[in-house]
Amino acid sequence: MSAPRFIGSEIYRASPFGPRHPLAIPRVSTVTDLARALGWLPGGAYVTSPRARPAALTSFHTAEYVAALLAAEAEGAVSDAVRERHGLGTLSNPVHGLMFRRPATSAGGALLAAEMVRAGGVVMVPGAGTHHAFADRAGGFCYLNDPVLALLHLRRLGLRRLAYVDIDAHHCDGVAAAFEGDREVLLISVHEEDRWPRTGALGDDGGGTHLNLPVPQGFNDTEMAAVRDRVILPALEAFAPEAVIVQCGTDAVEEDPLSRLALSNNAHVAAVLAIRAQTDRLIVTGGGGYNPWSVARCWTRVWGALNGREEPDRLEGAARAVLEGLVWPGRSAGRNPPAAWSQTLADPPREGPIRAEVAARIAVLRDRLPGLRQRVWG
């Protein structure tokens, strides 16, 4: 298997969202800079993302929606009818000068990643992972659904059984809707219960191949390890996918402002490495994450782990300067961030008990694993 590749773009250095928007923080650009400062991103590993053309987007999105997105970027405004019909020009998905080009770049990176792993390999696309967009509607800060586009492209490339694992704090409603009833796509989502978009109930099986695990507030590293070892890995083993996409949103990390989960970034690294051991074709995307230090440290750690890099106990020099230069508009934590956010990559472990409600939900999903194998192979 060739060395992992990292797909990025300079477009992520722009900050098109207003200062009050949760995405008004540097994310992908910081991961790129931090990985380079650590010596973890040599020129041969970095690939510039292409921008997906409108025709490529219509493999999932409707032509009407793509046209509305293009027009909104060009005109800088949307009508009330377009806002109502397509979810553009809202507080979550505002009109801005990159509202087509930026998500189309993320989609282009995801499509390229599918092509790059066709013969085997690992690709990380931190700008991708926008799992809330529907075929004809934006939602949840997502204008295009690049995980769906990548899965469909993998299928066009000849891969039949595919798996999508989502550890973002929010349920992947757009991806789930796209593959409802599709027995050749395994979807596993671990997300906070009673958190927007309030989909992905434990009993929602998507027609048989969706495993949804809503978890309570305070979900800890020990509980995530149990989910990984007792649900995610056995499900992948039973389904035997030909390729896996992992959506690695960092909003499940304790310091994120938009969830109430309590993971450390160790949980993300451990999950991605365990999944990698079960597949020859892996795409790792970004996703949610609204604390700029948490995002940078987590995704950089994941990239380093995929490359077998040994992380330093303490950051110095250029790497530390990248993190010390971050800003977090409108957040009190950004005015006086803890020293550890700039001086380390690894969070301290956040272990704890496996609570009864988590254990019970794990048991429900484990009871479905034999049926999952039969559904695929029967």
Q: List the strand order in the largest sheet.
A: 2-1-3-8-7-4-5-6
Alpha-beta classification: alpha/beta
User: Total number of helical segments?
Assistant: 14
Order of helices and strands: EHEHHHHEHEHEEHEHEHHHHH
Cα end-to-end separation? 31 Å
- Inertia-based shape: globular
Write the layout of secondary structure elements.
Blueprint: E1 5-8, H1 28-37, E2 46-48, H2 54-57, H3 63-75, H4 80-86, H5 101-117, E3 121-125, H6 146-156, E4 162-166, H7 173-178, E5 185-192, E6 210-215, H8 221-239, E7 243-247, H9 265-276, E8 281-285, H10 292-306, H11 317-324, H12 332-335, H13 340-343, H14 356-377
Parallel strand pairs: 1-2, 1-3, 3-8, 4-5, 4-7, 5-6, 7-8
Helix pairs in contact: 1-10, 1-11, 5-6, 8-9, 8-14, 9-10
Keywords:
single chain; 378 residues; alpha/beta; eight-stranded parallel beta sheet; 14 helices; 8 strands; 40% helix; globular
Q: Could you characterize the architecture of this molecule?
A:
- This protein is α/β, with parallel strands linked by helices.
- Helix content is 40%, strand content 11%.
- It contains 14 helices and eight strands.
- Strands 2-1-3-8-7-4-5-6 form an eight-stranded parallel sheet, sandwiched between helices.
- Helix 7 links the parallel strand 4 and strand 5.
- Helix 5 runs parallel beside helix 6.
- The longest helix is centred in the C-terminal third of the chain and has 22 residues.
- The chain is globular, with a radius of gyration of 19 Å.
In brief:
This protein is 40% helix and 11% strand. By secondary structure, the chain is α/β, with parallel strands linked by helices.
